[in-house]
């Protein structure tokens, strides 16, 4: 059954169809939330909130984009709202992890191709980028995570955020410059952040 057929059935109240949509998208949405918030518990809660909002909003879903893109937008918006509230509270340390669970397990396995020194360098780079991302605005962090970590195209990011492609490109350029500035200030600038165009 296609995604569109599942959405149509879910709109008519078919909970099992919606459950399939959740299963198909939950890992990707959780990873987005985790990377934006840096906290597994917050990510799980925001993932649940995104799916709840999707269930409640199915009647308003126009189908102009895919369901998964629409869901990505709902989750992204929930995370940005959360980060803004948390920033106002100033009582939560936002730490961004650039590793997902599978990568973390791979790092634990010995890899003969890399020396311990090289592994330490990579760890330090990840930590420097994570600390740099933490200092960016939620909007800049959002577009960098979507582009550099999740690998979304400019068009996909534009669809998720409701922005023109040119606006997405300029926002990403400003976010890269902001991250470069943070890394330079801390003595951690290690070259171009991305060669992806």
CATH class of the largest domain: Mainly Alpha
The succession of helices and strands, N to C, reads: HHHHHHHHH
**CATH architecture verdict of the largest domain:** Orthogonal Bundle
Straight-line N-to-C gap? 35 Å
- Helical segment tally? 9
CATH fold type of the largest domain: Arc Repressor Mutant, subunit A
Binned, the helix content reads: over 70%
Describe what you observe in this structure:
Helix 2 packs antiparallel against helix 3. The chain starts with a helix and ends in a 12-residue tail after the last helix. It is mostly helical and 197 residues long. It folds into two domains: 1-94, Rna Polymerase Sigma Factor, Chain: A (Orthogonal Bundle); 100-197, Winged helix-like DNA-binding domain superfamily/Winged helix DNA-binding domain (Arc Repressor Mutant, subunit A, Orthogonal Bundle). The chain has helices at 3-11, 15-37, 40-57, 67-89, 101-108, 116-134, 138-149, 154-161, 165-185. It has nine helices and no strands.
Task: Write a concise keyword list for the protein shown above.
single chain; 197 residues; mainly alpha; Rna Polymerase Sigma Factor, Chain: A; Arc Repressor Mutant, subunit A; 2 domains; 9 helices
Quick overview of this protein structure:
With 197 residues, the chain is mainly alpha-helical. The chain contains 9 helices and no strands.
Secondary structure topology:
Blueprint (H helix, E strand, L loop, with lengths): L2 H9 L3 H23 L2 H18 L9 H23 L11 H8 L7 H19 L3 H12 L4 H8 L3 H21 L12
Helix pairs in contact: 1-2, 2-3, 2-4, 3-4, 4-8, 6-9, 7-9, 8-9
